[in-house]
Amino acid sequence: MANRVSYKEIQLSVGDMITVHYKIKEGEKERVQLFKGVLIKIKGMDDANRMITVRKMSNDGIGVERVMPLQSSFIANITIDKASSYTKSKLYFIRDLSGQQLRNKLYSQKKATAVKNSKSSVKKVVKEQKA
Known about the structure:
The structure is a single chain. This protein has two helices and seven strands. A five-stranded antiparallel sheet has the order 6-5-4-3-7, with no helix packed on it. It has a two-stranded antiparallel sheet with strand order 1-2. Strand 4 and strand 5 form a beta hairpin. Helix content is 24%, strand content 42%. It has helices at residues 99-107, 109-130; strands at 4-7, 10-13, 17-26, 29-43, 51-57, 63-69, 75-82. The protein has one domain (4-130): SH3 type barrels. By secondary structure, the chain is of the alpha+beta class.
């Protein structure tokens, strides 16, 4: 399946922290509700039936997942709050993690590569000094 999908010139990938602006009709009034969470799944082969699953943690610590079709007229906008470099296609394992564990798992990848790069540059400097 897909790890990335484009929505109105925005590239969404699994693991991103996104905010979905969802239109809700209440009687004759219509309002926009924000649903902020982690994109855990992208489903569907073509744009006509593509769906996303977003998971958020409520104030009580209860996880809420919402499945939304991307071509829905109820989606006003989608914004990316924090991009992830995670490469798995489905993130079902985050259902068992707490908020802090989730942030460490998904968004600390860039720090780990920065540490690796700094270690390799230190090794180069040491080799140059020995030579």
